[in-house]
Write a structure and sequence with these properties.
Layout: E1 11-19, H1 24-34, E2 38-47, E3 50-58, H2 66-80, E4 82-88, H3 89-95
Antiparallel strand pairs: 1-3, 1-4, 2-3
Length: 98
């Protein structure tokens, strides 16, 4: 099923940052559900009117390539006034290793 990214890259970190507005979570989660991307963990906060969300998602059953999904989410973010970034978990881990 899907493009079956190798096991190390099934997990992806998605961050969403911007001015808080109605519907950010709904729009992002709708995109994920429509593309068979499973949310494994999610954290969101609002600080002084700024929205910040971090998600760990599983792309094991996704037909799209990672780069296409990342581009789609970046465009979605632009449309709703937030910045959405995606990183494969293994890259995120290696960048933040002390």
């Amino acid at each position: 099923m899907g493009n079956k990214m190798d096991n190390k890259t099934d997990k992806v970190i998605i961050t969403v940052v911007g001015k808080d507005t109605v519907g950010i979570i709904a729009k992002v989660c709708t995109y994920l559900a429509d593309n068979h991307i499973n949310i494994l963990d999610i954290s969101q906060t609002i600080v002084s009117g700024y929205f910040n969300m971090m998600m760990i998602v599983d792309m094991a059953d996704v037909d799209k390539k990672f780069a296409d999904m990342a581009d789609d989410l970046e465009s979605l973010g632009h449309d709703i006034g937030v910045v959405i970034k995606c990183q494969k978990e293994e890259i995120f881990d290696s960048m933040h290793r002390v």
